[in-house]
Design brief:
heterodimer; A: about 280 residues; mainly alpha; B: about 300 residues; two-stranded antiparallel ribbon; flat
Chain lengths: ~280, ~300
């Protein structure tokens, strides 16, 4: 009896220790990754990164053009992806909660949410790049929009569903038409959550590299022309990190540090907003 | 009357946006099929069974890439599933309340780090250390074992299929562990309390009550992680070595569908080459589609048992 009890206690102890080790294993990589970024990136940070363009091999320079290009492409992704995501979520949450079509759309949205981003790149290559015969900022932005859209749709729908129906009914009882109820009451109540979704979407797309490789490509020069290949941080990191030139690799690490810190800050901030906003239900 | 018209307009605008999502997924499928068609037409079933990938002679087949994709993802699952289970167990059953949120958030931050950062770190930091200190030891000690030994032979290069699988594991841990954590917290407290009440240890409660109750959801989480691992691109492209060969050893260089696309797409000349690459993309999309659909169905069944439609 007591031998058996002892055995159960030992099994319990061993397995729970493994669980703690598993957690430490997960956190270990996070710490190592971040440490690597800081250690390799921080000493190359300087004001010239933001004022000079990407240099030829073995010359000093920065990545001002890549930052501008990234902002342009990401902005296009947000501008195209966000409204469609919010409107589609509105239809799912406000007008068609239980219909069959809504279930189908939720399903394909989840597929889109987890579809490999490089496949999205291939798709945009097929419909935009191949059609117009050249890589362009437009193509890159559209690829990012397709990645952004399902993130916004998913979080917005979840947030709209958290708004109590009594609020909708109260507004409707005062004689407000349906669209005003949605825009003035439901959107306003769910605003924090919707913004969170957008922030998470921005965090997701601003580090995406694969879909940009053959849509926006890259550009060594300052360009704000969305009709041409345009410099951007992720593809620049890819090309410079893989290059044999020291100064290019240093720039890649500095850019990697900056972009990761920005994305971590964005997603942490989004999490804080979502946590303080889970007031209803 | 004006507000009624506005209502109809608003409703239809939102409906069009929703239908656009559906149309988009269909369009992706159609475009990929149409553009992959020349490759399928030219190579037939051989595209799936052949081993050649020879741009010089315009002969292409998908087997090495599919093999690499499946093997790296399998390695990732073997490592990530137990670790994620440990993390979920720690967060839901063991950690003091003040530690839960920080640990959850920290693990989820792993998912926010861009794929390309994993790639750089893997190639420049992890692979050299692994190739110098860990791999020689494994090759010497495990490489001579019967059966399994063949998996761990070859020169210690640091990069290769195993390294890619390990990095994929780290990348999918946050997805699997967060689903596991969520479904574990769905187990009714009464069930767990009654098990504790008859004298079960924490492990027995988890193994005999929590896991059986959440089995479907846990499978869904694993499928979700698998879907991610299958499609991951940049991290793999950096560390897998990119060679179109099939070998038994996990330490060999290899390739995956996504790494081939990332490496070769802009360099592809000629319709057959491009079409073959797009065909690879289509295969990847279909594989992940099936896996993710399965994940979604399993998670829906889990939610349905809870009585809360998702």
């Amino acid at each position: 009896m007591s031998a058996r009890y002892l055995r159960r206690r030992v099994v319990n102890w061993v397995n729970l220790s493994m669980s703690v080790l598993g957690t430490l294993f997960g956190l270990f990589w996070l710490v190592w990754l971040l440490w690597t970024l800081v250690e390799r990136g921080v000493r190359w940070l300087g004001p010239e990164l933001f004022t000079q363009n990407t240099p030829p091999p073995l010359a000093p320079g920065g990545f001002a053009n890549a930052i501008v290009g990234s902002i342009l492409i990401t902005a296009l992704g947000v501008i195209v992806g966000t409204p469609i995501g919010i409107l589609a979520a509105t239809w799912l949450a406000e007008f068609s909660r239980r219909s069959r079509l809504a279930a189908v759309i939720r399903f394909v949205n989840d597929i889109l949410l987890s579809a490999p981003s490089i496949v999205i790149g291939v798709f945009i290559y097929g419909v935009v790049v191949a059609r117009f015969g050249h890589f362009s900022g437009w193509a890159g932005g559209l690829a990012l929009a397709i990645i952004m859209l399902p993130v916004v749709l998913r979080t917005t729908e979840d947030m709209l569903k958290l708004v109590p129906d009594q609020m909708r009914e109260a507004a409707a009882a005062l004689g407000a038409p349906r669209w005003r109820v949605t825009v003035m009451v439901v959107y306003r109540a769910a605003l924090g959550g919707i913004i969170t979704g957008v922030l998470l979407g921005v965090a997701r797309i601003s580090g995406e590299t694969a879909p940009l490789l053959f849509t926006a490509l890259n550009n060594q020069f300052w360009s704000t022309d969305m009709n041409r290949p345009i410099a951007n941080l992720p593809v620049m990191i890819f090309q410079f990190a893989m290059s044999p030139y020291d100064n290019w690799q240093h720039l890649a690490w500095a850019a990697a540090l900056l972009i990761t810190l920005a994305i971590l800050a964005l997603s942490l901030f989004a999490r804080l907003v979502i946590r303080s906003r889970s007031f209803v239900k | 009357m004006r507000s009624a018209a506005a209502d109809v307009l608003f409703r239809n605008v939102t409906r069009v946006a929703a239908l656009l999502v559906l149309a988009l997924v269909i369009a992706i499928l159609v475009v990929l099929v149409v553009q992959a068609w020349p490759a399928f037409h030219r190579f037939g079933w051989h595209f799936f069974s052949g081993r050649e990938w020879d741009p010089a002679h315009a002969t292409f087949s998908a087997l090495t890439s599919i093999f690499g994709t499946l093997v790296t993802s399998a390695i990732a699952m073997v490592i990530a599933v137990p670790v994620s289970f440990g993390i979920a167990l720690f967060i839901t059953e063991m950690a003091p309340a003040w530690l839960r949120a920080p640990v959850s958030t920290a693990v989820e931050l792993l998912a926010a780090i861009p794929s390309i950062i994993y790639g750089m770190w893997g190639l420049f930091v992890f692979a050299p250390l692994f190739g110098e200190y860990v791999q020689p030891w494994i090759i010497e000690h495990i490489g001579s074992w019967p059966w399994v030994g063949a998996l761990f032979q070859g020169p210690p290069m640091g990069i290769g299929i195993f390294t890619a699988g390990l990095i994929l594991a780290i990348m999918v841990i946050p997805f699997i562990s967060s689903v596991m954590r969520d479904v574990f917290s769905l187990v009714p407290t009464v069930l767990k309390e009654s098990a504790y009440g008859v004298g079960c240890t924490t492990w027995e409660v988890v193994w005999r009550v929590v896991l059986p109750y959440t089995r479907v959801g846990v499978m869904g989480g694993i499928m979700l992680g698998l879907g991610r691992a299958l499609g991951e691109t940049m991290a793999v492209t950096f560390v897998i070595g990119n060679s179109h060969t099939l070998g038994a050893s996990l330490f060999n260089a290899g390739n995956t569908i996504s790494s081939t696309l990332a490496n070769e797409f802009t360099e592809a000349v000629g319709q057959t080459y491009t079409s073959s690459l797009i065909a690879l993309g289509l295969i990847l999309f279909l594989i992940t589609f099936v896996v993710l659909a399965l994940a979604k169905l399993l998670l829906l069944r889990m939610a349905a048992r809870e009585g809360s439609p998702t």
